[in-house]
Amino acid sequence: MNRFERLFASRWGLAVIYVVFLGLYAGASGDRLRQHSQYNHFVYLADGWLHGRLDLASNPPNENDWARVEVLTLKDGRVLKGQFKKIGPTDRFYPLRGPSLTIEQDQIQSKTWIRYISFPPFPAVLMLPFVAIWHLNFNDVIFTVVCAAINPVLL
Prior knowledge:
It is a single chain. The protein is α+β, with helices and mostly antiparallel strands. It has three domains: 1-35 and 139-155, no CATH class; 39-61 and 119-133, no CATH class; 66-115, SH3 type barrels (Roll). The protein contains six helices and five strands, in the order αααβββββααα. The chain has helices at 3-9, 11-29, 41-50, 122-134, 140-148, 150-154; strands at residues 66-74, 79-84, 92-95, 101-102, 108-117. Strands 4-3-2-1-5 form a five-stranded antiparallel sheet. It is elongated, with a radius of gyration of 23 Å. The two termini are 18 Å apart. The mean pLDDT is 92.
């Protein structure tokens, strides 16, 4: 084993690999490191858990990739949760349970939405302690760069 191979087989070498890739990823991120991303779904998920929720407490900052359930309050007092499909008959409502229903717009008293994060939760688990401190201001870009630099070390 030559000197180069010995260096990268040691803990010191692994630390060098980590620092090099951390610098590369941080450099490639540029100004994006200054604030959280505009698509910080996992921060919202972790924040929801910290407040005992699975859904978003308020409207999201954008409409990118949030799972959305429509909540209809009908004039007859019923409350339905589900979805109007984008294609096909516009009056067909598909509730979360049961068969589809025909609902005319004049039957609807009010319409709201419940939004969920539609991605696997593990990144939010890792972010939980940081979101507990910084809440929705937690910088997910820095977190991603720091975690991404671990990957070359694992190779």
